[in-house]
Each structure stands twice: as structure tokens, then as C-alpha cells.
């Protein structure tokens, strides 16, 4: 009777044969998938089918992490909140500083371009503080006489006129702003060339263009620039813009309200200009004909008074009349030539002066003593051959 093992222990192909078969199958699948992507669909189906199992397997991990987050203490939250607030404050300060630096950089670039375009000497300055008087529009800059600041120098920025230096100290200077009630700037309208003077107002927010006739061509929106006639401000600097024109029949001048084009109160970096005006000085006024005649009379009277004592002194020592006449003739000629020269130069009548001289010359002859009169014929007879 043959012995046969039970079906549970029956052996099929050998283990080596199975190994070889599976190895060859795996290599074939790898090659086909790498070259022909034959298993892409299979992997997609398997991934979609196994996704619910993956989520179910991750549920314990999610529950554990949620419990750990809930277990965070309030102290940790407060400390993190304080840190975040501190960091937020630092970042906001840095942002403000960056914005301020960018604005200052743009402002300084504009000032540099203005300094390069300007033909006059300029000195940069910065406002340090306002003055204590609340009724005036004045500021103090950090430049003084040692840096070359002069009294009366105009102060501008890249937009236009800001004010004028009114007081100079060794290291500081006081600037009166354009909107001060006591500040005046000669200006002209760009469109028409009309010249006038612009003043500040007590409120310090607008400007008043004065001495403008009612018939003048002034319109809202006209631009005003410096005229340069005062010799202080260079011509062509922007000053203001007309915002309102009021013309009334009962007044000779119109009321023109303007606004400054430059930020008078908002500017911090400024330029102080040193403008040198090369206009020749004004000629001296010539005296009129009446004044010239009076001066000629005074001069003639002084000369006549000085000649009378001289004639007396020449006649008394020797008592010679011909010598007195000979000495008197040159004086009379000189006296006659001087009024003629004054007449040609000043074109004023000199006859009254000559008339005054003749009586003055005759008086010494009348006042001579009788002894001199009797000595005249003797001296004359002795001299003649």
C-alpha cells in the first residue's frame, strides 16, 4: 500500500522555480511601466481606493495634536501677544522713519536741483523752532553770521518764496515768513506784467495784493512772481496765486486775495539766497533855478564884504590913489568874470550880485579922510613926467 501525504502538505513547484518566475515578472512590470506607463491607471485606482483608509489611519494623530493645542497655557499666549505687539511697534516706527526719510530725500533732491538752477549764491539751512510771539509769523534757522547769513536775505524752497531774514545772530538767524502782517514783497503778474506789492495778513493764512486799480486786468488763478525792483529778491521767484478778486465801485483799488504757492508753515529745509544787485546808484538831484540864484547871491555878498577891507588896507599906508585904482581893477575884473561864469554854468541871473558889489566898492572912497583926498593931486603930480 502506497503512502501519500495529505492534501495540506502537498508540494507544488519548487521554491527556486517560484523565485525565478516572480523575479522575471517584477522585472517585466518595471520595464513596461518605465517605458510604456502601463501601470498609471492601476496606481490611480489603488490610490483612490486607499484614500479613506489613509484618512482613517490619521485620525488618532489629529486628535492628539488638537488636544496638545488646547493644552497651551494662557501665560504662553500672553507672552507671545506681548512679543508681537513689541515687534509691531518697532515695524511701525521703522515704516514711519522710512517714509519720513523718503520725503526728506525727495525734498533735498528738489532743493539741490533748485540750487543748481539758481544763479545767485545759496546756503542751505534748517528750521530749528518757532518764535515765542504767537502774533507774528517768524521762525529761527540754524545758520548765522558766522556761516555767511546777511540781514535782509530772501529765504526760499523748491516751491517758491518762504520769507526774509530780519535778524542775524552769530549762530542763528530769525526769518519773517511771507504771511506775516508786516512783510511786503514787490511782485508782478506773470500773465500781464502788472507790478504791485503783496502783504501778509493778521491771520497768517492768506496774502493781500494791494494798490491794484479797479481797471487792472487781474483774474483768479493768475500767478505772482517777484519783480526784482527792490534789489532784495531776485526776479522770477514764485510767490502766490490769486484766489479771489473783489471790485467795488466806491473804492479806487480792488481787493485781491492770494495764497502762497510754497508751504510756508510746512517747510523745514530752506535755502538762504545772497542776491547781489548790480544796478547803478540813483543820480543826485540837480537844484532848481531859484535855489541856484540864492546861492549865487550869497557868494557875491561874501566876496564883496571881503574885498572892502582889502581896499582900505592898501590905501592907508602910502596914500597913493593911482595904486589903489590899479589894485582895484583886477579885483573888479575877477568879480565881473565870476558872475559871468556862474551865469553860463547855472543859467541864473547874476546882475543883482554885480549891483551889490558896486556900492560896496564905492564906500571905501567916500569914507577916506580929508588928508588922503588932499594928497591925491600931489601924488599924481609927482608921478607924471
Helical segment count: 7
* End-to-end CA span: 221 Å
CATH H-level name of the domain at 120-274... which superfamily? Answer: Rod shape-determining protein MreC, domain 1
CATH C-level of the domain at 120-274: Mainly Beta
Query: What general form does the structure show?
Result: rod-shaped
Q: What is the string of SSEs from the N terminus onward?
A: HHHEEEEEEEEEEEEHHHH
CATH fold-level name of the domain at 120-274 = Thrombin, subunit H
Radius of gyration: 56 Å
CATH architecture of the domain at 120-274: Beta Barrel
Largest sheet: 6 strands, antiparallel, barrel
Secondary-structure-derived class: alpha+beta
Q: How much helix is in the residues? A: 40-55%
**Strand order of the biggest β-sheet:** 1-2-5-4-3-12
**Mean pLDDT over the full residue set:** 76
Strand fraction: 15-25%
Strands, total number: 12
Low-confidence stretches: 312-385
Describe the structure.
- The protein is rod-shaped.
- The chain has a six-stranded antiparallel barrel with strand order 1-2-5-4-3-12. It has a six-stranded antiparallel β-barrel with strand order 6-7-8-11-10-9.
- It has helices spanning 15-36, 40-70, 74-117, 289-315, 321-346, 351-366, 370-383; strands spanning 121-130, 138-141, 154-156, 161-168, 173-177, 184-189, 195-200, 207-213, 223-226, 238-246, 253-260, 269-274.
- 47% of the residues lie in helices and 20% in strands.
- β4 and β5 (173-177) form a beta hairpin.
- It is of the alpha+beta class.
- Mean pLDDT is 76; it is low at 312-385.
- 18% of the residues are buried.
- α4 (289-315) packs parallel to α6.
- The protein is built from seven helices and twelve strands.
Amino acid at each position: 500500500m502506497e503512502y501519500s501525504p495529505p492534501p495540506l502538505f502537498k508540494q507544488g513547484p519548487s521554491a527556486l522555480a517560484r523565485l525565478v518566475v516572480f523575479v522575471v515578472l517584477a522585472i517585466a512590470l518595471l520595464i513596461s511601466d518605465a517605458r510604456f506607463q502601463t501601470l498609471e491607471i492601476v496606481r490611480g485606482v489603488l490610490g483612490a481606493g486607499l484614500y479613506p483608509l489613509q484618512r482613517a489611519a490619521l485620525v488618532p494623530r489629529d486628535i492628539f495634536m488638537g488636544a496638545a493645542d488646547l493644552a497651551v497655557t494662557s501665560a504662553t499666549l500672553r507672552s507671545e501677544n506681548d512679543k508681537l505687539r513689541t515687534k509691531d511697534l518697532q515695524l511701525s516706527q521703522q515704516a514711519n522713519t522710512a517714509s519720513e526719510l523718503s520725503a526728506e530725500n525727495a525734498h533735498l533732491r528738489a532743493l539741490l536741483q533748485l540750487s543748481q538752477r539758481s544763479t545767485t549764491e545759496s546756503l542751505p539751512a534748517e528750521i530749528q523752532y518757532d518764535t515765542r510771539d504767537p502774533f507774528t509769523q517768524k521762525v529761527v534757522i540754524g545758520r548765522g553770521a558766522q556761516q555767511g547769513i546777511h540781514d535782509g536775505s530772501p529765504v526760499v524752497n523748491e516751491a517758491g518764496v518762504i520769507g526774509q531774514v530780519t535778524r542775524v545772530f552769530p549762530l542763528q538767524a530769525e526769518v519773517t515768513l511771507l504771511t506775516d502782517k508786516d512783510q511786503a514783497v514787490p511782485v508782478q503778474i506773470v500773465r500781464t506784467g502788472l507790478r504791485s506789492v503783496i502783504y501778509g495778513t493778521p491771520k497768517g493764512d492768506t496774502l493781500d495784493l494791494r494798490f491794484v486799480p479797479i481797471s487792472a486786468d487781474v483774474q483768479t488763478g493768475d500767478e505772482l512772481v517777484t519783480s526784482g525792483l527792490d534789489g532784495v529778491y531776485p526776479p522770477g521767484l514764485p510767490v502766490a496765486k490769486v484766489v479771489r478778486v473783489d471790485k467795488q465801485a466806491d473804492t479806487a483799488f480792488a481787493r485781491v486775495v492770494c495764497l502762497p504757492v510754497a508751504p510756508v508753515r510746512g517747510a523745514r529745509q530752506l535755502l538762504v539766497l545772497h542776491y547781489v544787485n548790480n544796478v547803478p546808484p540813483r543820480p543826485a538831484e540837480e537844484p532848481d533855478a531859484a535855489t541856484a540864484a540864492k546861492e549865487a547871491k550869497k557868494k557875491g555878498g561874501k566876496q564883496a564884504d571881503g574885498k572892502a577891507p582889502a581896499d582900505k588896507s592898501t590905501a592907508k599906508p602910502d596914500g597913493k590913489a593911482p595904486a589903489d585904482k590899479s589894485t582895484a581893477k583886477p579885483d573888479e575884473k575877477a568879480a565881473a568874470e565870476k558872475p559871468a561864469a556862474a551865469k553860463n554854468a547855472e543859467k541864473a541871473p547874476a546882475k543883482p550880485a554885480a549891483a551889490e558889489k558896486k556900492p560896496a566898492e564905492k564906500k571905501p572912497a567916500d569914507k577916506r579922510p580929508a588928508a588922503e583926498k588932499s594928497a591925491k593931486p600931489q601924488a599924481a603930480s609927482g608921478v607924471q613926467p
